[in-house]
């Protein structure tokens, strides 16, 4: 593994390194049918918010530990250069580099591809977490959105940011990626090319219209495919059917955009959510796995 030249970059990448990382990402996505680097790790390529490793045919980065969670690492090697050990060398170097940022880093393998499993086995890594992607064709009819006299349902306004942050961080205080948001995370997404305020649905109590109960943030950034990006409900408002109401509102919006299907991500052990989404016609499409050293 030491035969491969791997550079470590702290902070911002050069324009050439950014182009290299995005080119490798695009080539792997086309061949594998799944993106090897997730949204947070892709953002870090441009904003420099990571520890980067660059090899001749590959790229990887590590995001710092947060709120007691381990650092997160992801890597990709160009499909034309696979099979020579560069991927194993890159992941091994990522694990070593991640020790600077915290103990026991997680390594994501998106799509649970056989090659990733072989690299994990060779490095003595064990699977720890399963994140499922579910999909639903939009050609199938959707249940109607129920009319609720106790709920005011509307779309996004910029003045809603504080309440979205409050509900998001209360709903996902346990979640390693979704929890602990600040205004920066909201601004990154509302400033993205794909952002559409008409695709963010918010539910307020009719008796207290200034307090957000829950929200559904949809996303369309892939041809023909929409996403149930975030559904967050204030824990204090659980049991009022808001998750189903908000999800359906977003699905009807996506169905009106001439898309073929809609996707969402859910933890593999979240039985309640899996049952809810199953009733709405979602089925398993793929799995993303995290690996750690035992």
Overview of this protein structure:
The protein is of the alpha+beta class and 294 residues long. It folds into two domains: 6-123, 3-Layer(aba) Sandwich (Aminopeptidase), CATH 3.40.630.30; 136-287, 3-Layer(aba) Sandwich (Aminopeptidase), CATH 3.40.630. The chain is 31% helix and 31% strand. The chain contains eight helices and twelve strands. The chain has helices at residues 15-32, 39-47, 86-98, 114-122, 161-171, 183-190, 242-255, 271-279, and strands spanning 6-10, 51-55, 58-63, 72-77, 106-109, 125-137, 151-155, 200-205, 208-222, 225-233, 261-267, 283-293. A twelve-stranded mixed sheet has the order 1-2-3-4-5-12-6-11-10-9-8-7, sandwiched between helices. Strand 2 and strand 3 (58-63) form a beta hairpin. It is globular. The two termini are 21 Å apart.
SSE layout:
Blueprint: E1 6-10, H1 15-32, H2 39-47, E2 51-55, E3 58-63, E4 72-77, H3 86-98, E5 106-109, H4 114-122, E6 125-137, E7 151-155, H5 161-171, H6 183-190, E8 200-205, E9 208-222, E10 225-233, H7 242-255, E11 261-267, H8 271-279, E12 283-293
Parallel strand pairs: 4-5, 10-11
Antiparallel strand pairs: 1-2, 2-3, 3-4, 5-12, 6-11, 6-12, 7-8, 8-9, 9-10
Short summary:
This protein is an alpha+beta fold and 294 residues long. The chain has eight helices and twelve strands. Strand 4 (72-77), helix 3 and strand 5 form a beta-alpha-beta unit.
